[in-house]
Q: What sequence folds into this?
């Protein structure tokens, strides 16, 4: 669950409320989860998304592990990851 209190942008010195979550689906074939790369405000979204994609590209995976490229999700406080709304429209803008 996302905590019910305000969450701030991960960018150092930004101080704005986070609106988007950058996360990637990970699975080892048995369990699956959404790995969070960053929480970000709209201003830092482009930079955060690019650095998350770069981190993903540099990440080594074990055999049988699947890690999809990070995507952008709307942050909805108090909701479970599985109901997060993905934003491919924003992702396309930044690749
Ligand atoms: Zn920010």
A:
């Amino acid at each position: 669950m996302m905590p019910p209190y305000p969450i701030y942008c991960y960018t150092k010195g930004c101080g704005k409320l986070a609106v988007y979550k950058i996360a990637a689906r990970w699975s080892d074939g048995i369990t699956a989860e959404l790995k969070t790369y960053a929480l970000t405000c709209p201003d830092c979204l482009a930079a955060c998304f690019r650095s998350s994609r770069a981190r993903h590209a540099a990440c080594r995976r074990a055999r049988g592990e699947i890690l999809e490229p990070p995507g952008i999700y709307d942050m909805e406080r108090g909701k479970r990851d599985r109901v997060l709304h993905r934003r491919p429209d924003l992702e396309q803008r930044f690749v």
